Request: fold
Amino acid sequence: MLDLPTASRLIRDAYKSRKQRRMRKANDKIMISSASGFSKPIYQLAVYSYVLSKILSKPRFMGRKYADKHKEIDTILNGMVSASEAGDNKTFKARLKDLDFSIHNVEQSDSRFILSMIDKGKLKTAAILYAQGFSLSAAAEMTGIEQQELMDYAGKTRMFDRLDERTSLSKRIKKAHKMLIGDAA
Amino acid sequence: MKEKHVLADASSLISLTSSCLLDSLKFFHDKFGVRFFIPQSVEYESVTRPLSLNVKIHRFSALRIQKMINDGIIHVVEENLEKETRELMKTGNSVFYARGKPLNIFHKGEMEMIALAHKLDMGSLLMDERTTRILIEEPDALRTHLQHEFKTNILINRKNLSKFLSGLDHMDVVRSTELIYLAYKNGFFGNYGEIEPESAAAALYKLKYSGCAISFKELEEYEKLIQ
Reply:
Protein backbone atom coordinates (compact mmCIF):
# COMPACT_ATOMS: atom_id res chain seq x y z
CA MET A 1 0.00 0.00 0.00
CA LEU A 2 1.29 3.47 -0.91
CA ASP A 3 1.93 6.02 1.78
CA LEU A 4 1.04 9.67 1.25
CA PRO A 5 4.56 10.94 0.35
CA THR A 6 5.06 8.12 -2.18
CA ALA A 7 1.68 8.75 -3.78
CA SER A 8 2.39 12.51 -3.89
CA ARG A 9 5.77 11.92 -5.53
CA LEU A 10 4.20 9.62 -8.12
CA ILE A 11 1.80 12.38 -9.15
CA ARG A 12 4.39 15.13 -9.11
CA ASP A 13 6.87 13.18 -11.25
CA ALA A 14 4.21 12.02 -13.68
CA TYR A 15 2.94 15.56 -14.14
CA LYS A 16 6.44 16.93 -14.57
CA SER A 17 7.00 14.45 -17.41
CA ARG A 18 3.75 15.75 -19.04
CA LYS A 19 3.10 12.14 -20.06
CA GLN A 20 -0.53 11.11 -19.77
CA ARG A 21 0.28 7.38 -19.68
CA ARG A 22 2.59 7.88 -16.74
CA MET A 23 -0.12 9.76 -14.89
CA ARG A 24 -2.66 7.01 -15.67
CA LYS A 25 -0.26 4.45 -14.22
CA ALA A 26 0.14 6.60 -11.12
CA ASN A 27 -3.64 6.81 -10.88
CA ASP A 28 -3.98 2.99 -11.17
CA LYS A 29 -1.48 2.48 -8.33
CA ILE A 30 -3.12 5.07 -6.11
CA MET A 31 -6.60 3.67 -6.81
CA ILE A 32 -5.60 0.19 -5.63
CA SER A 33 -4.04 1.72 -2.57
CA SER A 34 -7.05 3.91 -1.94
CA ALA A 35 -9.40 0.94 -2.02
CA SER A 36 -7.44 -1.43 0.15
CA GLY A 37 -6.68 1.02 2.92
CA PHE A 38 -8.99 3.93 2.60
CA SER A 39 -7.78 7.29 3.78
CA LYS A 40 -9.23 10.58 2.63
CA PRO A 41 -5.96 12.16 1.41
CA ILE A 42 -5.08 9.06 -0.64
CA TYR A 43 -8.58 9.04 -2.11
CA GLN A 44 -8.19 12.74 -2.99
CA LEU A 45 -4.91 11.97 -4.71
CA ALA A 46 -6.70 9.24 -6.69
CA VAL A 47 -9.24 11.81 -7.90
CA TYR A 48 -6.64 14.46 -8.75
CA SER A 49 -4.31 12.03 -10.52
CA TYR A 50 -7.28 11.02 -12.69
CA VAL A 51 -8.09 14.67 -13.43
CA LEU A 52 -4.46 15.55 -14.16
CA SER A 53 -4.24 12.61 -16.56
CA LYS A 54 -7.28 14.03 -18.35
CA ILE A 55 -5.60 17.45 -18.61
CA LEU A 56 -2.46 15.86 -20.02
CA SER A 57 -4.51 13.90 -22.55
CA LYS A 58 -6.15 16.96 -24.10
CA PRO A 59 -4.10 18.68 -26.81
CA ARG A 60 -6.02 21.92 -26.24
CA PHE A 61 -4.49 22.19 -22.77
CA MET A 62 -0.96 21.48 -23.93
CA GLY A 63 -0.39 24.63 -25.97
CA ARG A 64 1.84 27.58 -25.08
CA LYS A 65 -1.19 29.43 -23.71
CA TYR A 66 -1.29 27.04 -20.74
CA ALA A 67 2.47 26.91 -19.97
CA ASP A 68 2.17 29.15 -16.92
CA LYS A 69 -0.77 27.16 -15.55
CA HIS A 70 1.25 23.93 -15.88
CA LYS A 71 4.16 25.52 -14.04
CA GLU A 72 1.79 26.65 -11.30
CA ILE A 73 0.53 23.07 -10.91
CA ASP A 74 4.14 21.80 -10.82
CA THR A 75 4.86 24.18 -7.95
CA ILE A 76 1.75 23.09 -6.04
CA LEU A 77 2.63 19.40 -6.51
CA ASN A 78 6.15 20.10 -5.21
CA GLY A 79 4.57 21.72 -2.17
CA MET A 80 2.34 18.68 -1.65
CA VAL A 81 5.34 16.36 -1.70
CA SER A 82 7.25 18.52 0.81
CA ALA A 83 4.24 18.78 3.13
CA SER A 84 3.54 15.04 3.02
CA GLU A 85 7.20 14.20 3.65
CA ALA A 86 7.20 16.54 6.64
CA GLY A 87 3.92 15.04 7.89
CA ASP A 88 2.42 18.53 7.77
CA ASN A 89 -1.26 17.73 7.17
CA LYS A 90 -2.43 21.33 7.39
CA THR A 91 -0.11 22.47 4.60
CA PHE A 92 -0.91 19.36 2.57
CA LYS A 93 -4.62 20.19 2.74
CA ALA A 94 -3.90 23.80 1.75
CA ARG A 95 -1.91 22.63 -1.29
CA LEU A 96 -4.79 20.31 -2.27
CA LYS A 97 -7.09 23.33 -2.22
CA ASP A 98 -4.61 25.24 -4.39
CA LEU A 99 -4.56 22.31 -6.81
CA ASP A 100 -8.33 22.27 -6.95
CA PHE A 101 -8.34 26.00 -7.69
CA SER A 102 -5.69 25.70 -10.40
CA ILE A 103 -7.51 22.84 -12.13
CA HIS A 104 -10.74 24.86 -12.10
CA ASN A 105 -8.82 27.74 -13.66
CA VAL A 106 -7.46 25.54 -16.43
CA GLU A 107 -10.91 24.16 -17.14
CA GLN A 108 -12.75 27.46 -16.92
CA SER A 109 -10.63 28.92 -19.66
CA ASP A 110 -12.13 26.31 -22.00
CA SER A 111 -15.39 25.24 -20.35
CA ARG A 112 -17.36 22.70 -22.41
CA PHE A 113 -19.31 20.48 -20.06
CA ILE A 114 -21.73 20.90 -17.13
CA LEU A 115 -19.86 18.32 -15.08
CA SER A 116 -16.41 19.61 -14.13
CA MET A 117 -13.32 17.46 -14.59
CA ILE A 118 -13.02 17.16 -10.81
CA ASP A 119 -16.64 15.98 -10.51
CA LYS A 120 -15.95 13.47 -13.28
CA GLY A 121 -12.85 12.33 -11.43
CA LYS A 122 -14.90 11.80 -8.26
CA LEU A 123 -17.57 9.90 -10.18
CA LYS A 124 -15.02 7.69 -11.90
CA THR A 125 -13.27 7.00 -8.59
CA ALA A 126 -16.60 6.13 -6.93
CA ALA A 127 -17.44 3.75 -9.79
CA ILE A 128 -14.07 2.04 -9.45
CA LEU A 129 -14.61 1.59 -5.70
CA TYR A 130 -18.09 0.12 -6.32
CA ALA A 131 -16.74 -2.15 -9.06
CA GLN A 132 -13.98 -3.34 -6.74
CA GLY A 133 -16.48 -4.45 -4.10
CA PHE A 134 -17.38 -1.48 -1.94
CA SER A 135 -21.09 -1.11 -1.33
CA LEU A 136 -22.96 1.53 -3.30
CA SER A 137 -23.52 3.76 -0.26
CA ALA A 138 -19.93 3.38 0.88
CA ALA A 139 -18.55 4.38 -2.54
CA ALA A 140 -20.99 7.29 -2.78
CA GLU A 141 -20.30 8.52 0.75
CA MET A 142 -16.50 8.33 0.40
CA THR A 143 -16.49 10.37 -2.77
CA GLY A 144 -19.39 12.72 -2.08
CA ILE A 145 -21.19 11.52 -5.19
CA GLU A 146 -24.99 11.07 -5.32
CA GLN A 147 -26.02 7.40 -5.37
CA GLN A 148 -28.17 8.08 -8.40
CA GLU A 149 -25.23 9.49 -10.36
CA LEU A 150 -23.09 6.55 -9.39
CA MET A 151 -25.77 4.03 -10.41
CA ASP A 152 -26.27 5.83 -13.69
CA TYR A 153 -22.56 5.61 -14.42
CA ALA A 154 -22.12 2.04 -13.16
CA GLY A 155 -25.11 0.85 -15.20
CA LYS A 156 -23.38 1.85 -18.39
CA THR A 157 -20.29 -0.21 -17.66
CA ARG A 158 -19.64 -3.95 -17.68
CA MET A 159 -18.85 -4.04 -13.97
CA PHE A 160 -21.76 -6.39 -13.20
CA ASP A 161 -20.35 -8.96 -15.63
CA ARG A 162 -17.13 -9.10 -13.64
CA LEU A 163 -18.54 -11.01 -10.68
CA ASP A 164 -19.37 -14.63 -11.27
CA GLU A 165 -22.72 -15.27 -9.54
CA ARG A 166 -23.97 -18.82 -9.23
CA THR A 167 -27.60 -18.16 -8.34
CA SER A 168 -29.60 -19.05 -11.44
CA LEU A 169 -32.16 -16.76 -12.98
CA SER A 170 -34.92 -19.34 -12.55
CA LYS A 171 -34.18 -19.44 -8.81
CA ARG A 172 -34.32 -15.65 -8.65
CA ILE A 173 -37.64 -15.58 -10.48
CA LYS A 174 -39.05 -18.22 -8.10
CA LYS A 175 -37.97 -16.12 -5.11
CA ALA A 176 -39.52 -13.00 -6.64
CA HIS A 177 -42.73 -14.89 -7.41
CA LYS A 178 -43.00 -16.05 -3.81
CA MET A 179 -42.29 -12.51 -2.60
CA LEU A 180 -44.61 -10.57 -4.88
CA ILE A 181 -47.34 -12.94 -5.94
CA GLY A 182 -47.35 -15.37 -3.13
CA ASP A 183 -47.50 -18.89 -4.48
CA ALA A 184 -44.87 -21.10 -6.13
CA ALA A 185 -43.92 -20.10 -9.70
CA MET B 1 -55.80 -11.60 -0.84
CA LYS B 2 -52.99 -12.06 1.65
CA GLU B 3 -50.97 -8.89 2.19
CA LYS B 4 -47.30 -9.19 1.34
CA HIS B 5 -44.56 -6.98 2.74
CA VAL B 6 -41.40 -6.05 0.86
CA LEU B 7 -38.57 -3.89 2.13
CA ALA B 8 -37.05 -1.75 -0.65
CA ASP B 9 -33.66 -0.05 -0.63
CA ALA B 10 -32.65 3.24 -2.27
CA SER B 11 -30.93 1.54 -5.21
CA SER B 12 -34.07 -0.29 -6.36
CA LEU B 13 -36.19 2.86 -6.12
CA ILE B 14 -33.55 4.82 -8.01
CA SER B 15 -33.31 2.37 -10.92
CA LEU B 16 -37.10 1.97 -11.13
CA THR B 17 -37.70 5.70 -11.16
CA SER B 18 -34.82 6.39 -13.57
CA SER B 19 -36.38 3.84 -15.92
CA CYS B 20 -39.88 5.35 -15.57
CA LEU B 21 -41.04 2.04 -14.09
CA LEU B 22 -41.93 3.12 -10.57
CA ASP B 23 -45.62 2.51 -11.37
CA SER B 24 -44.84 -1.20 -11.26
CA LEU B 25 -44.93 -0.85 -7.44
CA LYS B 26 -48.51 0.40 -7.68
CA PHE B 27 -49.26 -2.49 -10.04
CA PHE B 28 -48.12 -5.05 -7.44
CA HIS B 29 -49.81 -3.09 -4.67
CA ASP B 30 -53.19 -3.03 -6.42
CA LYS B 31 -53.10 -6.45 -8.06
CA PHE B 32 -51.32 -8.61 -5.46
CA GLY B 33 -51.62 -6.64 -2.22
CA VAL B 34 -47.92 -5.91 -1.89
CA ARG B 35 -46.93 -3.19 0.57
CA PHE B 36 -43.49 -1.67 0.06
CA PHE B 37 -41.56 -0.36 3.07
CA ILE B 38 -38.49 1.83 3.30
CA PRO B 39 -36.47 2.99 6.31
CA GLN B 40 -36.15 6.72 6.97
CA SER B 41 -32.59 6.71 5.63
CA VAL B 42 -33.86 5.58 2.22
CA GLU B 43 -36.48 8.31 2.23
CA TYR B 44 -33.73 10.78 3.10
CA GLU B 45 -31.38 9.49 0.37
CA SER B 46 -33.95 9.24 -2.40
CA VAL B 47 -36.37 12.07 -1.57
CA THR B 48 -35.42 14.52 1.18
CA ARG B 49 -31.79 15.06 0.22
CA PRO B 50 -32.24 15.60 -3.54
CA LEU B 51 -35.15 17.96 -2.86
CA SER B 52 -33.46 19.93 -0.09
CA LEU B 53 -30.20 20.29 -2.02
CA ASN B 54 -32.24 21.31 -5.05
CA VAL B 55 -30.29 18.89 -7.24
CA LYS B 56 -32.22 19.63 -10.42
CA ILE B 57 -31.06 16.53 -12.27
CA HIS B 58 -32.58 14.23 -9.59
CA ARG B 59 -35.53 16.38 -8.59
CA PHE B 60 -38.17 14.69 -10.73
CA SER B 61 -37.07 11.21 -9.59
CA ALA B 62 -37.32 12.35 -5.98
CA LEU B 63 -40.80 13.78 -6.56
CA ARG B 64 -42.01 10.56 -8.19
CA ILE B 65 -40.90 8.58 -5.14
CA GLN B 66 -42.49 11.21 -2.90
CA LYS B 67 -45.78 10.70 -4.79
CA MET B 68 -45.61 6.94 -4.17
CA ILE B 69 -45.19 7.69 -0.45
CA ASN B 70 -48.07 10.19 -0.52
CA ASP B 71 -50.25 7.65 -2.35
CA GLY B 72 -49.61 5.00 0.30
CA ILE B 73 -47.80 2.61 -2.06
CA ILE B 74 -44.51 3.05 -0.20
CA HIS B 75 -44.52 3.27 3.60
CA VAL B 76 -41.75 4.94 5.55
CA VAL B 77 -40.85 3.02 8.70
CA GLU B 78 -39.84 5.23 11.58
CA GLU B 79 -37.55 3.14 13.75
CA ASN B 80 -34.45 4.15 15.60
CA LEU B 81 -31.95 1.51 14.50
CA GLU B 82 -28.73 3.33 15.31
CA LYS B 83 -27.43 0.70 17.72
CA GLU B 84 -28.36 -2.30 15.55
CA THR B 85 -26.97 -0.59 12.43
CA ARG B 86 -23.70 0.21 14.17
CA GLU B 87 -23.36 -3.37 15.34
CA LEU B 88 -24.09 -4.77 11.86
CA MET B 89 -21.61 -2.36 10.29
CA LYS B 90 -18.95 -3.43 12.74
CA THR B 91 -19.57 -7.10 11.97
CA GLY B 92 -20.00 -6.65 8.20
CA ASN B 93 -16.80 -4.66 7.97
CA SER B 94 -14.88 -7.36 9.85
CA VAL B 95 -15.73 -10.21 7.46
CA PHE B 96 -13.09 -9.71 4.76
CA TYR B 97 -9.42 -9.11 5.48
CA ALA B 98 -6.65 -8.01 3.11
CA ARG B 99 -3.05 -8.04 4.33
CA GLY B 100 -4.27 -8.43 7.88
CA LYS B 101 -6.56 -5.41 7.71
CA PRO B 102 -10.36 -5.49 7.62
CA LEU B 103 -11.95 -4.18 4.45
CA ASN B 104 -14.42 -1.46 5.36
CA ILE B 105 -16.63 -1.96 2.37
CA PHE B 106 -20.08 -1.55 3.91
CA HIS B 107 -21.88 1.63 4.83
CA LYS B 108 -24.65 2.38 7.27
CA GLY B 109 -27.11 2.89 4.38
CA GLU B 110 -27.22 -0.80 3.50
CA MET B 111 -26.75 -1.99 7.07
CA GLU B 112 -29.79 -0.07 8.27
CA MET B 113 -31.85 -1.97 5.70
CA ILE B 114 -30.67 -5.27 7.11
CA ALA B 115 -31.24 -4.06 10.67
CA LEU B 116 -34.80 -3.07 9.78
CA ALA B 117 -35.44 -6.40 8.09
CA HIS B 118 -34.33 -8.11 11.33
CA LYS B 119 -36.43 -5.84 13.50
CA LEU B 120 -39.61 -6.24 11.46
CA ASP B 121 -38.85 -9.90 10.73
CA MET B 122 -39.22 -9.24 7.02
CA GLY B 123 -37.93 -11.90 4.66
CA SER B 124 -38.31 -9.98 1.40
CA LEU B 125 -35.81 -7.43 0.20
CA LEU B 126 -35.86 -5.50 -3.07
CA MET B 127 -32.30 -4.40 -3.75
CA ASP B 128 -30.40 -3.43 -6.90
CA GLU B 129 -27.12 -2.76 -5.10
CA ARG B 130 -24.62 -5.53 -5.70
CA THR B 131 -22.18 -5.87 -2.78
CA THR B 132 -24.66 -6.34 0.06
CA ARG B 133 -26.80 -8.74 -1.98
CA ILE B 134 -23.78 -10.88 -2.82
CA LEU B 135 -22.67 -10.91 0.81
CA ILE B 136 -26.08 -12.31 1.77
CA GLU B 137 -26.34 -14.76 -1.15
CA GLU B 138 -22.80 -15.86 -1.99
CA PRO B 139 -20.10 -14.52 0.35
CA ASP B 140 -17.45 -16.75 -1.21
CA ALA B 141 -18.13 -15.28 -4.65
CA LEU B 142 -17.60 -11.83 -3.14
CA ARG B 143 -14.33 -13.00 -1.64
CA THR B 144 -13.12 -14.31 -5.03
CA HIS B 145 -14.10 -11.02 -6.61
CA LEU B 146 -12.26 -8.97 -3.98
CA GLN B 147 -9.17 -11.14 -4.43
CA HIS B 148 -9.24 -10.54 -8.15
CA GLU B 149 -9.76 -6.79 -7.75
CA PHE B 150 -7.23 -6.16 -5.02
CA LYS B 151 -4.75 -8.69 -6.42
CA THR B 152 -4.12 -10.10 -2.97
CA ASN B 153 -5.29 -12.98 -0.81
CA ILE B 154 -8.53 -12.16 0.99
CA LEU B 155 -9.38 -13.98 4.19
CA ILE B 156 -12.90 -14.48 5.51
CA ASN B 157 -13.51 -14.29 9.22
CA ARG B 158 -16.10 -17.11 9.33
CA LYS B 159 -17.19 -16.27 12.85
CA ASN B 160 -18.09 -12.71 11.88
CA LEU B 161 -19.69 -13.92 8.66
CA SER B 162 -21.95 -16.33 10.57
CA LYS B 163 -22.79 -13.59 13.04
CA PHE B 164 -23.68 -11.24 10.19
CA LEU B 165 -25.75 -13.82 8.35
CA SER B 166 -27.55 -15.15 11.41
CA GLY B 167 -31.24 -14.58 10.96
CA LEU B 168 -30.81 -13.82 7.27
CA ASP B 169 -31.13 -17.42 6.10
CA HIS B 170 -34.83 -16.94 5.38
CA MET B 171 -34.26 -13.66 3.55
CA ASP B 172 -34.97 -13.47 -0.15
CA VAL B 173 -33.30 -10.68 -2.07
CA VAL B 174 -34.58 -9.80 -5.52
CA ARG B 175 -33.74 -7.05 -7.97
CA SER B 176 -36.00 -4.68 -9.86
CA THR B 177 -35.41 -6.78 -13.01
CA GLU B 178 -37.17 -9.77 -11.41
CA LEU B 179 -39.99 -7.46 -10.33
CA ILE B 180 -40.45 -6.08 -13.86
CA TYR B 181 -40.26 -9.54 -15.44
CA LEU B 182 -43.08 -10.73 -13.18
CA ALA B 183 -44.99 -7.51 -13.84
CA TYR B 184 -44.74 -8.27 -17.55
CA LYS B 185 -45.90 -11.87 -17.02
CA ASN B 186 -48.95 -10.51 -15.20
CA GLY B 187 -50.00 -7.86 -17.69
CA PHE B 188 -48.14 -4.70 -16.68
CA PHE B 189 -47.21 -4.03 -20.32
CA GLY B 190 -50.61 -5.20 -21.59
CA ASN B 191 -51.50 -1.89 -23.19
CA TYR B 192 -48.42 -2.07 -25.43
CA GLY B 193 -50.29 -4.48 -27.71
CA GLU B 194 -48.15 -6.40 -30.15
CA ILE B 195 -44.93 -4.77 -28.94
CA GLU B 196 -45.54 -5.98 -25.37
CA PRO B 197 -42.70 -8.57 -25.21
CA GLU B 198 -40.24 -6.24 -26.93
CA SER B 199 -41.17 -3.47 -24.48
CA ALA B 200 -40.66 -5.74 -21.48
CA ALA B 201 -37.21 -6.80 -22.69
CA ALA B 202 -36.29 -3.16 -23.40
CA ALA B 203 -37.46 -2.19 -19.89
CA LEU B 204 -35.12 -4.79 -18.37
CA TYR B 205 -32.17 -3.36 -20.32
CA LYS B 206 -33.17 0.14 -19.23
CA LEU B 207 -33.06 -1.02 -15.58
CA LYS B 208 -29.56 -2.35 -16.13
CA TYR B 209 -28.44 0.95 -17.68
CA SER B 210 -29.98 2.76 -14.72
CA GLY B 211 -27.75 0.84 -12.33
CA CYS B 212 -29.51 -2.41 -11.43
CA ALA B 213 -26.77 -4.96 -10.78
CA ILE B 214 -27.49 -7.51 -13.48
CA SER B 215 -25.12 -8.99 -16.05
CA PHE B 216 -25.64 -8.93 -19.82
CA LYS B 217 -25.68 -12.75 -19.73
CA GLU B 218 -28.70 -12.69 -17.41
CA LEU B 219 -30.42 -10.08 -19.58
CA GLU B 220 -29.97 -12.34 -22.61
CA GLU B 221 -31.57 -15.16 -20.59
CA TYR B 222 -34.48 -12.87 -19.81
CA GLU B 223 -34.85 -12.01 -23.49
CA LYS B 224 -35.14 -15.71 -24.32
CA LEU B 225 -37.76 -16.18 -21.60
CA ILE B 226 -39.76 -13.26 -22.91
CA GLN B 227 -39.74 -14.31 -26.58
Notes: The CA atoms of residues 95 and 158 of chain B lie 7 Å apart.
